[in-house]
Amino acid sequence: MNDALVLSQQIAPYVTAAISSYGTAVLTRSIDLSADGTVSLGQRLLDKILRRSAEQSSQREAVASALQDLAGSPSDPDLQAVVRVQLKKLLMEEPELIRELSDLVAKQGTTIVASGDRSVAAHTINGGVHTGDCYG
Asked: Around Cβ 22, how many Cβ atoms within 10 Å?
């Protein structure tokens, strides 16, 4: 269960980035457009998650439904949380998927993701970071 929880939290930003960029189109087909590393990894993760086998499990359908909802409002933190929960449930149901998705993430290397208004993301921050409006 711990592996499923950690991996679901790790892959959720990539999945969200792909949904934010391409909406529901990313759920129904592979998109072969130039995308940054984050979106590209999100596309590959979704492909593994949604099209892993010919048979559809009820949990895989629950993930797809949560992703459809997220596509309508990708910045909604509640919908993002629902996606994480559904991903965790799927990974708990299909532990071999944990290895497959972990391999994809490991091959990607280091990626820094910032999402939301005035977000900050960096590999290393030496000093303070200020966001927002500055009035002198």
From this structure: 19
**pTM score > 0.90 for this model?**
no
| Distance separating alpha carbons of residues 95 and 73, to the nearest angstrom | 29
∠ CA 122-127-129, rounded to 5°: 60
Residue matched to tokens 């940054």: 36
Query: For the chain (length 136 residues), average pLDDT per consecutive 10?
Result: 85 86 66 60 85 71 92 92 94 90 80 63 65 64
Residue 106 corresponds to which tokens in the numbers above? Answer: 């490991």
Locus of tokens 């009035």: 135
| Cβ atoms of 9 and 98 closer than 8 Å | no
